[in-house]
Amino acid sequence: MQHLLEISLQGEKQFETFSEDSKKFFGQVEKTLVEHLVSTEAAHFSSMRLLPEEKEKARNRLSPAVFQSAAWKKLAPTKEEWEEVFFRKVQANKFIQFRAQSSVIPISDSEARKYFDENRLKFGNLPFGQFQENIKIYLRRSQVEQRLKDWYDVLRSKYKARNLLSEI
Predict the structure, then answer these.
(1) In angstroms, how far is CA 29 from the centroid of its own chain?
(2) How many helices (H) and strands (E) are present in the chain, helices listed first?
């Protein structure tokens, strides 16, 4: 259900499911676990609670086709079930965006230059100035992704969460 709601938000029109022993399924279980942890953590912050208008706006972004799909009908969730999963997803995404925005630290020219020098083969004989801004964007994005990953690990530890499927 989580996967179907997610692809509906992304504007997809094909609502496929996958077998429970596929890599996609394991990935979705992991993603659902992280969303649940983030949503649980967000509940401790009043500024991260979803306002009624945010819920309505998010609900309006769902494609009505998802509710008519064979995959959805096979699951047959109640309105309460899918709304709980959906709003948990929306709340988690809101908190993740907040954390990502607050994790951004400007990349200096010297940090970009160091990366350029250490990865000289990637850039050939072209000058640093041609890649400087793209390197800064890449390093900033990498930094945010690493900080979010570290935060997810902290949440896993805090809530003693494990994905038992990944241990099989």
Answers:
(1) 13
(2) 9, 0
Compute the average pLDDT of residues 71-88. 95
Q: What is the largest CA-CA distance in the chain?
A: 60
Is residue 155 a contact partner of residue 95, using CB atoms and an 8 Å limit?
A: no
Position 27, amino acid: G
How high does pLDDT run on average in the chain? 93
pLDDT score of 22: 85
Supply angle C-alpha 6, 84, 51, rounded to 5: 90
Q: 78-111 burial, b if ≥16 CB within 10 A, otherwise e?
A: eeeebeebbbbbbbbbbbbeebeeebeeebeeeb
User: How far is it, in rounded angstroms, from Cα 84 to Cα 56?
Assistant: 14
Task: Judge contact between 85 and 1, C-beta under 8 A.
Answer: yes
Residue 146 burial (CB count, 10 A): 11
